[in-house]
Amino acid sequence: MNVKKRTISTLLLSLFLLLVLLTPALAADGSTKTYVYNEYGEDVNAPSAYLCTRVLRGRDLGLGDFSKIADLYVNGNVYISDTGNNRIVVLDPQYELVRVISEVKENDAVTALSSPSSVFLAGGLLYICDTGNSRVIAVDADDRVVKTFYKPDSDLLTEDFAFKPSKVVVNSAGSVYIAASGVYQGLLHYGADGGFIEFFGANKVEVTAAVLLKSMWMNIFSDEQRESLIRTVPTEYAGIFIDSEDMIYTTTITASTSQVKRLNASGENILMYPGSSTSFLQRGYDRNNFGDQKTESVKGGLRRSQIMDVVVDEDNVIAVLDSQRGRVLLFDGEQNTLGIFGGSGTQDGYFTAVSALSKNGEEYLVADGMRNSVTVFAPTDYMQNIRRALRAYEKGEYSESRAYWESVLESNAGLSVAAKGIGRSLLLEGNFHDAMRYLKMGDDRYYYSMALTRYRRQFLRENSLWLVPCVILAVAAVCFGLRKLYVAILRSGKGREK
């Protein structure tokens, strides 16, 4: 009996140890913790969208460890802002070392970079946020400074304001847009000649319950009491991205919704999804929320996503980096979630403190400023089919798009955007009846109404030969019945009079 008990105890202990050993492996794969959001704001399980294939470290490149990576930029080559080491590390598309930029030539002298935080390549010039030297410089292929952008001369900035540029992008006309720490008036817009033009696209103060309460007290307090209150000011931008059409995308860490903006020439956000509310009364899936739809309670407070970087690719897929949870979230052009990957942890593919996001071909690059590494993520077949479906639909190849979406739906029945894609493809092909079924499945109310209207019209047109006689007979029958009823009423009335 004792032998039997010992055997059972040994088996249980073995199973427990096996579970403990397998748990990190499952977490490292990430496939057990991936999800998307449906139309009701509920998270549903989903296959892995991207998997970690490689981790880049400075020592593996023969450079020593990276330190405080602030930004990643890809334009042919891969540029790593190795801020803590005062250098820009340049890799080729296969992640082999090309060169290191730590000094620039200026006025017949050599100047060392100081805490470079961002780079951008445009017009043959490499624009560098030389943050420690309070400037942005543009250097040529020989690392010679051609242009310099200093603190703008503006009454909105105090004389002792420390100019700390953090991000830079340049449009096709040569105009330069800079995000700087402590600048709440928007992006700094410079001309191609280096002259300051304007503050561009300032954030608006987000209306929250706290802001409304503070506004109420401001109307009650005296002047002295108002002065003692902390002023409500717009927040600064954390990240900038510019697409092939010169449209500028920005991210705001402290916003709870509309964390990503697409600014037009007037600096107005045109990424707002029509019909979605941005108030705290929002219910269901908020398409203007580019973070996790749900908040978590941590140490008595609420933890919500903090979006610090954004990348938009040729498929119009919007990828954002959540610094709070260490995740990358992918959205289509209508702000539907396509996939979520990454997370907080110590295994490869997870992060301690994410700091930057970029894309090299089909692969996403995520920098971890604390672990001093860059993680490379490659798409799975599941995500490849999603992208193929998006591309085919955009080209008008609806049958091909539908085939890809059907494959996606087989892998993930909870991805509502796949049902929408099939429904819309069927709608454009004229199959209104089947389109209605898939559009209902994806809760696509606008296109469902369109399909229903066209289906009714089609039904009437195809069945008019027998519908018209039936309608005429039905009307005649109703008229005959009403006449008989009228006669019966008259007769019953005369009977009562007698």
Describe this structure in words.
The chain is of the alpha+beta class. Helix content is 30%, strand content 30%. The protein has 9 helices and 29 strands. The strands form 9 sheets. It has a 4-stranded antiparallel sheet with strand order 3-29-28-27. Strands 4-5-6-7 form a 4-stranded antiparallel sheet, with no helix packed on it. A 4-stranded antiparallel sheet has the order 10-11-12-13, with no helix packed on it. A hairpin with a 2-residue loop joins strand 10 (116-122) and strand 11 (125-130). Helix 5 packs antiparallel against helix 6 (416-429) and helix 7 runs antiparallel to helix 8. The longest helix is centred in the last third of the chain and has 34 residues, at 464-497. It is elongated, with a radius of gyration of 30 Å. The model is unreliable at 19-32, 205-215, 225-233 and 276-282 (pLDDT under 50).
Short descriptors:
four-stranded antiparallel β-sheet; alpha+beta; single chain
The rounded distance between the terminal residues' Cα atoms is: 106 Å
What would you call the quaternary organization?
single chain
> Which value, in Å, is the CA radius of gyration?
30 Å
Count of DSSP E strands? 29
Number of helices: 9
* Poorly predicted residue ranges: 19-32, 205-215, 225-233, 276-282
Estimated structural class: alpha+beta
- Strand percentage lies at 25-35%
Strand adjacency order, main sheet: 3-29-28-27
- The helix content is 25-40%
Main β sheet profile: 4 strands, antiparallel
Envelope shape: elongated
What does the average pLDDT come to?
84
